[in-house]
Design goal:
The protein has 84 residues and is mostly helical. The chain folds into two domains: 36 residues, no CATH class; 47 residues, no CATH class. Helix content is 69%, strand content 0%. The longest helix is centred in the middle third of the chain and has 18 residues. The chain is extended, with a radius of gyration of 19 Å.
Length: 84
């Protein structure tokens, strides 16, 4: 495993002290910075349409919402028992 420079280690320590939302935003920006290629034509529009469809499904009741704690509990059981 690669070791962090003192500067990177200090930056990581500061980042970990941020709120979950702030850390998520920073992660998004860092990931975006890794992708140097321009997005494929139509990708942004397609994602916007997919997001709208999913939000509409939630609002209309067509999909069953599962609380995050329940999802974590189910995944934990699957990992513990080796089931997919």
């Amino acid at each position: 495993m690669a070791h962090l420079t003192p500067q990177a280690s200090d930056l990581l320590e500061k980042a970990l002290s941020l709120s979950t939302q702030e850390r998520g935003l920073i992660i998004d920006r860092l990931i975006e910075s890794l992708d140097e290629a321009p997005p494929d034509a139509g990708v942004e529009k397609a994602w916007a349409e997919e997001i709208k469809r999913r939000v509409d499904d939630v609002h209309s009741g067509r999909v069953e919402m599962i609380p995050g704690e329940e999802v974590r509990r189910r995944l934990g059981r699957r990992l513990l028992h080796g089931r997919e």
